[in-house]
Amino acid sequence: ESQLNPNYNFESFIEGDSNRLARSASMAVANKPGGTSFNPLLIYGGVGLGKTHLAHAIGVQIKDKYPDKTVLYISSEKFTQQYIDSVKGNTRNDFIHFYQMIDVLIIDDVQFLSGKTGTQDVFFHIFNHLHQNGKQVILTSDKAPVDMQDIEQRLLSRFKWGLSAELQVPDYETRVLILQNKLYRDGVEMPEEIVEYIAKYIKSNVRELEGVLISMIAQASFNRKEFTLALTKQIVDKFVKNTKREVSIDYIQKIVSNYFELDVATLQSKTRKRHIVQARQLAMYFAKRMTKASLASIGSQIGKRDHATVLHACKTVDNLTETDKQFRRYVDDLTKKLTF
Ligand code: ADP
Ligand code: MG
């Protein structure tokens, strides 16, 4: 069947500045699948910000409004697996044919297609067929198309045909609304000051907000307690500590420079001396690995380079760690310094 979760709908998706564009584009697509210029619609953003929820909401609304349309939601991992199975079972043509018959195709987390050239190739053909026939394609990804790695150029250019809409981290007011809405739906009452406390300190994503609520509800009923501020502080504290500390690009540059006994200005300079180039590439690599910054933003902060330079740096570091023992030591040492 369509694999849609009816609970992920537009009514349960709280609107805020962080998601307004993505939400309204999604509604436009849901009301007129294949009939807007948002084809494909690509929803991108960090983990737990509502990409999967919105993608389902579109499908749910289309099913409601156009019961005769075939809608399919699938994760890109599952899509890849189905493709691999079809190759093994000699049913590749059936696989393609099946997907070309769909009216609305929703593929979640397309970043997982990176490096999978066979799957990308087959998806390219399916996409073209659907698009030419006015069928709607909806994609989600953790990155904007410009920052996607190891996705074929011809596919990336297709991704850019329609609209890319970002989901950002919700602001405080939206976080309060999301919590209140969730409590209301679960039939739980919680003092306002407690809701506000959670919204104030849990600010990285919506999944975490929900995690704190689940934890609170479980503990409160277990202890037959009311929701106290003390209990809240305890739970919120645990969540904040568990969330991976986000290091800044400045901090990474300081640690890397220090490790190679350079100053940050030298690291950022245009010099092509080999050991400085390596240090710079390592800084870019760690910035990519440990922050949410885009390639373009990393490049501009590390000596005004462009995103291609950063991408090249990440690949070089990946290759060198596999082939060069000394280099591997650098990466291990720096990983320790940056994570503890
Ligand atoms: P992603 O796919 O981006 O990692 P999800 O769509 O799985 O994130 O969202 C994580 C959780 O947060 C889900 O339970 C989802 O319902 C909820 N959520 C995200 N954004 C909102 C929102 N704006 N309003 C209500 N719930 C939201
Ligand atoms: Mg998701």
SSE topology:
Blueprint lengths: L19 H12 L9 E5 L5 H15 L5 E5 H13 L3 H9 L3 E5 L8 H16 L3 E6 L11 H7 L3 E5 L4 H15 L5 H10 L4 H17 L6 H14 L6 H11 L4 H5 L5 H17 L4 H7 L5 H17 L1 H15 L1
Parallel strand pairs: 1-4, 1-5, 2-3, 3-4
Bound molecules: adenosine-5'-diphosphate (ADP) and magnesium ion (MG).
Which properties best describe this structure?
Rossmann fold, 3 domains, 340 residues, binds adenosine-5'-diphosphate, alpha/beta, 5 strands, 5-stranded parallel β-sheet, binds magnesium ion, Chromosomal Replication Initiator Protein Dnaa, Chain: A, Helicase, Ruva Protein, domain 3
Describe the structure.
The protein is α/β, with parallel strands linked by helices. It has 3 domains: 20-167, Rossmann fold, CATH 3.40.50; 172-242, Orthogonal Bundle (Helicase, Ruva Protein, domain 3), CATH 1.10.8; 249-339, DnaA protein, C-terminal DNA-binding domain (Chromosomal Replication Initiator Protein Dnaa, Chain: A, Orthogonal Bundle), CATH 1.10.1750.10. 59% of the residues lie in helices and 8% in strands. Strands 2-3-4-1-5 form a 5-stranded parallel β-sheet, with helices on both faces. Strand 3, helix 5 and strand 4 (136-141) form a beta-alpha-beta unit. The longest helix has 17 residues, at 206-222. The protein starts with 19 loop residues before the first helix and ends with a helix. The mean pLDDT is 93. Adenosine-5'-diphosphate (ADP) binds next to helix 2 and helix 9.
